[in-house]
Amino acid sequence: MKREIIVTGDGSVTIHLPDMKESYHSKFGAIREAYHVFIQNGLALTNGQPVAVLEIGFGTGLNAFITYLETVKTGQQIHYTGVEAYPVAVEEAMQLNYVTELDAVAHAGIYETMHNVAWELPVNLSDKFELNKQHKFFQDIEDTELYDLIYFDAFGFHAQPELWSEEIFAKMYKALKPNGILVTYACRTVIKNAMKAAGFTTEKLPGPPGKREMLRGFKY
To answer: How many domains does the chain have?
Structure first.
């Protein structure tokens, strides 16, 4: 499948798949979207407490990297699990400009290590951030009450609707601890209904640039 690196609205890049009419991040700003959806409307709700994060779609590693950078700023302890069925090649990831766009040259080695470390092997990238990459399909997740926060960053509904089903969200609900949170950039009615059917209490929030709304779900 053809893959191309494109520049998004905030100067950061993303990987675009023209055959699927899909990109790994928003064309309106990859970094802005990541911060708005996953940090400001997700991680910020954990109030600096130790937190276990599950990312659905490790992809380029952008969400993991900005979460790591948050630990540098705040000292928050984070155990980060990233699930990915089709890993981005290290060589391709190294062509992305996230380190420079995030003014994080001092941490360039961390971003590279995120892509070089073995799958299924937890590794401490610092005394505050542990990464565990899992190479598997989302349908194969069988965790029970392990995570405080889920970054749901799968490819869009138009490209892979099966990833936004009640079945998948039921797995997410099961994987969350009580009072856990799920955030996603998406806000289709069919997605909100699937989340509700799985047990989530949902709310719409203002979306990142280019999207009117996004969704957040709670496990009560």
So the answer is: 1
